[in-house]
Amino acid sequence: MSRIPPKPWPTGLADQVEPLVLRVLAPNPSPYTFTGTQTYVVGPIDGPDCAVIDPGPISDEHLDAIEAAIGKRAVTAIMCTHTHRDHSPAAIPLAASTGAPVVGCAPLVIETTGPRADEAFDPTYAPDRVLEDGEAMRGTGWTLTALATPGHTSNHLCFALEESGSLFTGDHVMGWSTSVVIPPDGDMGDYMASLEKLLARDDTRYHSAHGAAIEKPKQLVRGMIGHRRQRENQILRLMRERPRPVSAFIPDMYRGLDERLIGAAEMSVTAHLLDLEKRGIAVSEEGIWQAA
């Protein structure tokens, strides 16, 4: 996990990250969002239309910045990768101001009663159209194709910009940290399968919702798969030493961890354990985990 860089951050500025893509940073930095959520406006800057990917949280400042990046173009679609509250809530006011339909991931709300290790779900998200794997939205000079990538959330989509070879990865692959996988909706087996799906593709660049553009995507995805397998091996080794609850895995696996991220680490370990249980490799009795 990267340290948050010192300010100033380019919040509210339309940063041209490639010919067809403007990036606008929302003012919502946190231990889980890095410097904030990044919204992307896709389409030729001097063209007649564009799409907006992950409009972000509701913020007058951020909405003004998105509309400035849109300029005089019509918005063909407001596209959401998933429904965490740092990604989709601004779809409603942006749709109201632009007249654009909201398309992309399916609606999903999971209520939790305890402390969260990521953003909560957006209960206001109501898409006009849900995109299936392989479906595309098109405009003048741009094509965005949906790629189903469950794992971080069950409804997560990435969007491939066919004209440039770039992939908008939401929170599935980020430019600053590995993604958290939070049960019951987050699923480690699905997440690993989605990483393998990306590894088999030939995308040239990733634009994630948090962090810098990823210029060597295959290298990063291989590293992420290796990292998760390493974590799984750590869990298996610790279970073989002695049965233990989830909290007892953390000191050995995450030395020097920021206390604010302990919840995320426990959820990640839980996701691994549930996956191991599905595969018949681990068992739990009254919250105590051991190798099967």
What does this protein look like?
- Helix content is 26%, strand content 22%.
- The chain is of the alpha/beta class.
- It has two domains: 14-225, Metallo-beta-lactamase, Chain A (4-Layer Sandwich), CATH 3.60.15; 242-291.
- A seven-stranded mixed β-sheet has the order 1-2-3-4-5-6-7. It has a five-stranded mixed β-sheet with strand order 8-9-10-11-12, with no helix packed on it. A two-stranded antiparallel sheet has the order 13-14.
- Strand 5, helix 2 and strand 6 (102-104) form a beta-alpha-beta unit.
**What's the overall geometry?**
elongated
In whole angstroms, the N-to-C terminal distance is: 32 Å
Radius of gyration: 19 Å
Strand adjacency order, main sheet: 1-2-3-4-5-6-7
Low-confidence stretches: 113-117
The major beta sheet can be summarized as: 7 strands, mixed
Total of DSSP H or I helical runs spanning 4+ residues: 6
Protein structure class: alpha/beta
The CATH architecture of the largest domain can be given as 4-Layer Sandwich
**And the CATH topology of the largest domain?**
Metallo-beta-lactamase, Chain A
Total of domains:
2
What is the helical fraction, as a range of percent?
A: 25-40%
Looking at this structure, what is the CATH superfamily of the largest domain?
A: Ribonuclease Z/Hydroxyacylglutathione hydrolase-like
